[in-house]
Amino acid sequence: MSAKNSVTVIGLGPMGRATVKILLAAGVDVTVWNRTPGKAEALAELGAKPAATVAEAIAANDIVLLSLIHYDAMYGVLEQGPADLTGKTIVNLSSDSPAKTAKGAGWVLDRGARFLTGAYMTQSDDIQHPASHLYVSGPKELHDSLRPLLELLCKNEYLGADYGLAQLYYQAGLAMFHAYLASLQQALAMIERSGGDVDTFLELTRDDAQSQRDFTVYFAEAAKQGGWGDLAALKMMHAGAQHVIDASEDAGVDAALTHTIQDYYQRALDATEKTGEVVPVYQIFRGTAA
Q1: What span, in angstroms and rounded, lies between the C-alpha atoms of 46 and 120?
Q2: 0.70 exceeded by pTM
Q3: Taking a C-beta distance cutoff of 8 angstroms, is the pair 75, 100 a contact?
Q4: DSSP structure class, residue 194
Q5: Which end of the chain is less congested by CB atoms within 10 angstroms, N or C?
Q6: Residue 257 pLDDT more than 90?
């Protein structure tokens, strides 16, 4: 069987299971291993081949996809057996910081294997959603050779040879998503606790996706110039955050997230007063404000 039709998947959390199911549906021969055997047994019913040990799972195929909670878990898992990585290709789909990713890549390379960083940019385990992407970084020729396999999962975005790049852009996306998800839940709680209608809110926000994209482009351009906002804008955003806090707390909803956001505007206002020049919130995030 050709390499692109045979692969091992280690780690069967939600993303790992989704990966295995897609590969099986595409006709790929998949060997699986998980610390909790029950998850592997459930996938065996779909055609996956459970391995008894990590060493056995890695020996089964030249291509190994890792779907673990973080990079530290990789060391403990791959050292079991111990597994022989010589000549293998490790594609780590786990989430972690760019620095830890680079360290992990070096660890794998030192053991005679090749390495690619992968990161699913998706809002759930629906990997094949039209908006989902797989960010990839590492040797381009290696990605080129694996692209037919990885494209079965979702659209690939190759970002460069630096092993940390896929995780850099992935974590940047998560920074936005975590704030969005938390603020969305605060918004829904405000509506529900105040006697409003969530379906009405959904209708009112039907055009948000394009609007948010426009804001992203606008603020990205401003960031290139040092950040957005004059003194009046900072005061307006600070006051606006207070209005959200009042509306939330009047309804008995936790507004800690908005308090944190307001604090950034307060810090920008304080720095502006101290320096006599406008200090945008972007510079507070960058750590370059006086």
Answers
A1: 23
A2: yes
A3: no
A4: T
A5: N
A6: yes
